[in-house]
Predict the structure.
Amino acid sequence: MEKFEHEYGAEQIQVLEGLEAVRKRPGMYIGSTSVRGLHHLVYEIVDNGVDEALAGYCSEINIEIEPGNIISVQDNGRGIPVEIHPKTGISTAETVYTVLHAGGKFGGDSGYKVSGGLHGVGASVVNALSNWTEVTIQRDGGIFQMKFEKGKTVKKLERIGDSKKTGTQVRFLADDTIFETTEYEYDVLEKRFREIAFLTKGLKITFEDKREEDSKKVEFCYEGGLSSFVEFLNKGKEAINKTPIYIEKNGEIPVEIAMQYTTSYSENIYSFVNNINTVEGGTHLEGFKRSLTKVFNDYARSHNILKEKDSNLQGEDIREGITAVVSVKVKEPQFEGQTKTKLGNSEVTGVVQSMVNDALATFLEENPAIAKAILEKCVSASRAREAARKARELVRRKSSLETTTLPGKLADCSSKVAEECEVYIVEGDSAGGSAKQGRDRRFQAILPLWGKMLNVEKSRADKIYGNDKLNPVIVAVGAGIGNDFDITKIRYGKVIIMADADVDGAHIRTLLITFFFRYMRPLIENGNVYLAQPPLYKLSKKGMEDVYCYTDEDLSKAYKELEQKGIQREQLALQRYKGLGEMNPDQLWETTMDPARRILVKVTMEDAMEADKTISLLMGDEVEPRRQFIQKNAKYVKNLDI
């Protein structure tokens, strides 16, 4: 290994004092300096108010985005202590904002039994990464204020008035030399604050965006807590138990659970630890699932719903159609997993399992009609699972007997290295023909589909195997579906949906994305699913290179640019592409398939909870919520076939 010639002595050892380390390596403290890290600053300050609410001292938090992207967070908690801190010799409030890991959440005799937040970096890191921070405290009969710039104190804490109220207000402006953007996304913040309000029963959260003349304001307060959360998630679904089953126990490890069964076939369980979404689950989720399986099987046996000869229901049978939220508060959580959002505390499993065993068994005994309806669904799911297993085995046996296991209409690529290969799922045979002729055969495969495919939101897995529209997709991807899906076996690194730029094309894209989301979710989570973006228009003129426009805005811009070159609008021929089949192979390659020039949109899982809710709303059985969605969003439609 080549040596890097440099001095290595005392002079080269950096000592970063105070909050300099945070400014030097911000990603270590907030994850990134992208918009996600920017939002994390807001969450850290809001979490301080939530901790006061969890301790029983705060009932309201008001958050504002002021003009210029200034954030203001005000709570009516106890207010940060203002007396001189015995170790630092400065006010406790200034200590909290200028010393890393100084706060009321550390040590056995801390000011909080539990506290929210994943990183727990707190106010000092927000202060360090802001151009300026202003903190106003109401406590001990007075109003106190202090100010900072880039983490350094510019105005020490001083009393500026009298007040009988208590609470803390923090205003800050994120440092634009550190963050890639300082523009907050209203929708992202709104979702998080709604989630916090659901998880903190009775806490009122007001959020207002004052950046534009017409400000946006929302207010969240849910006395129903997790029950309200579950009802919100199930909007657009038909519930089996109209009122969610609610379980709560306050102890050394407080546990709160709400669950509701619907007629849908998907399982949606969300777990939280100290208000943080544990997307990878953990011991609390494990305890809940174990208990659910045990209690329902015990009830089915004791009430003769399962006969002696019948096998026990499996966990997946019992969880079909369930929407549940499991929330625990752990004093010292141990997080594991790839994203550090998997709870590892082993003692939590037993606590949750024991609590659910008792409470759920009692509920089923007291509500026999609901118990029977849920178990009928579970038994039906068990039969469908068995039918799906037989169908799956039939497909495997059939495949093993055939000379080729690939769909007949698939035009495969020559490369067998998944990472460099891509498959275009194309709507219609005519577009498929153009795509086959225009592609690069080395790494691009083409799979034409025809007609409308199955809406999997309304179907169980046993209906999917052998389906003439979906089976070619399953076989081409090559990694199975559902619980059998194995991301390591995919045959293509990119699965690209290429449909017409019209309403029918949008429907096909939605149906395919729904299928991938429900039965090949790791494909989306791993970033393998893309949407091709074919052009909407072509501008042409003899002696001029064709100009392709992908949006109406692109078209207006192209007209203006050509006019500046002396080419008038009436001299141009405009073609509006209604379908991919209207393009000849070289046009399709040039605009939609050439990696050097094409536009692809990656389908991501940024917010699985919101994605699930939207898919259920758009593709589910309930018509009324979908009608309301269309009415609300009709004004944004730009491309509507008549």
In short: The longest strand covers residues 152-162. Residues 415-534+602-636 form a domain with the Rossmann fold fold (CATH 3.40.50.670).
